[in-house]
Structures are given as C-alpha cells and as structure tokens.
Fold this sequence. Notes:
Its main location: membrane. By secondary structure, this protein is mainly α.
Amino acid sequence: MTPAPLDRRGLWMAVGAFVIWGVMPLYWHLLKTVPSLQIIMHRIVWSALLVAGWLFWKYGRGWLRETLAIPRAAWMLALSGALIAFNWGLYIWAVNAGHVVETSLGYFINPLLNVVLGVLVLRERLTAVQWLSVAIATCGVLWLTFNYGSFPWIALVLAASFGGYGLIRKLVGVPPVRGLGVESLYLFLPGLAVLLWGEFHGAGGFIAHDGMRGWGWGVAALLVLGGALTALPLIGFADAVRRIPYSVVGLLQYIAPTLQLLCGVLVLGEDFGSDRAIGFVLIWIALAVYAGDGLLRSRRRPLPA
C-alpha cells in the first residue's frame, strides 16, 4: 500500500517550531543575569496572557468551557502543562549553567523516543528503510551516551518529559491554540505567585522598588518577548502532531538539537571533541537516509487519474 502524502501545513509548522527551538539557547543566554526560576515564571505568565487573551478576544469566555468539555481534556492538559513547565525549567537552567551541548543531546534522543512511541503506542508503521534510519540513529545516541564522560541525566530527563508532552497532545485531540491556552491557565496563578513573591523578597528584579535596582528595560523586554517565543513554536508543534504521523515528527525534530549544538559549540564555545562528533555524524546519516527514502517514495507515487 502506498503511504498517504504528508500534510504540507503540518510539515512546515513542525519545521518552523524546531528551528525556533534550535536557536533559543542564544536568546536565553542574553538573560543569564536573571535567575533561572524567574525566567521560567516569566515564560509562563507572559505566554499565558498572550494566548489566553487572544482566545478570549476571538472566541469569548465560551472557549474554555467548550475545551474542557472534551473527554479527558481537563486532566490530560493539566498533565501536559506540568510536563512542559518542568521541561522549560530544566532546559533554561542547563543552558545558563553551560550545558547547551548536553541539552542538544537530550533533544537528539527525544525524536528517537517519539518514533518508538509512535510505533508502540499509536500503532504507526515504518518502512524497512525507515527502520534502518532508526537503527543508525540509535547507534549514534548510544555512542553519545556511553562516550559522554558522565551520565547524561539532563539529556535523558529532557527527552522523556518532552516526549511525554508531545504524546499527550497527540492523544487529547484538542485544537492546538486552545490546548496551549488551557495549559497556560493551569500554570498562570502559580507562576504569578512565584514572581510576586520574588519581587517583594529580593529575589526578583523585573520592577525596581525600595531602592533595589531592577534588571533594566532591555532585560524586562526580553522576558516579556520570551512569552511570545514560548507560545508560537508550541502552537506550531501541537498543530503539527495532529496533522502528520508522530514518527515523522520525531525524525524532523533533529533540526532543533542540530542548531542547538551549533549554537553551543560555535557561538557559546562549549567543548565538542571527536568522540561526540562520531555520534552526531551517525544521527545526521540517519536523517539523510530517512529524508532520501521519503523523497524517492514521493516521486514514485502514481499521479491521481
């Protein structure tokens, strides 16, 4: 049976999301003077205001009730919101602590995990060549894991948390922007409470008060803009996982860690020896095999009558 053609909008939404995520280490590096917990809470609060505000403006108050009325949506979106908040927190801490290369390893492992979840949980099927690409990528990930120099717990936890988030969003069947809006509202009040506590107990600097100097208007603007940069790729990702097979999403996702790796090594000056290079080359070969197989199958597909 000839595989169905991929949804082009879903494909480009996935690519766009992964490109934004790939260059985000440079953005968070600009905020290295801000404590990681503060960055995370600002991410939550400003993205919640942006997404929920837009939904209330376009659909009125009914959108929240309608979304939560979808079977399993309330508790599944609460779980996905907790997973993505945890993922953000660990990621930002790791970037500003000088572990960009290890975070890229986590997001190299994550697409492989997505392929496995797509096959085992969602009953998706792979061709023989696609299985070969998965096997090559697995060898690359195992090489990186055992030659990293220390147990890569940051990478493994990032992969598991984001893999779980994507799977839940695939299963819940909620429109992507509405789903992100519900997740944001679940996280908004806790995030706002932490920010306010920090501002009035000397742990924050978004607003200068009582003689305390703030971080400055430039940093404050970056924190607010971080909300938009949080929401947009998540919307694209959630839309993509509903339109294209999860196994395809998993392999496209190698775009983000490749860009993260380049940012960490070429811009931020992190170490990248020959042992690590071998693992990354194996993963890139796997991507080339998968992409080449898809291109050949699309050319061989007969035209409609």
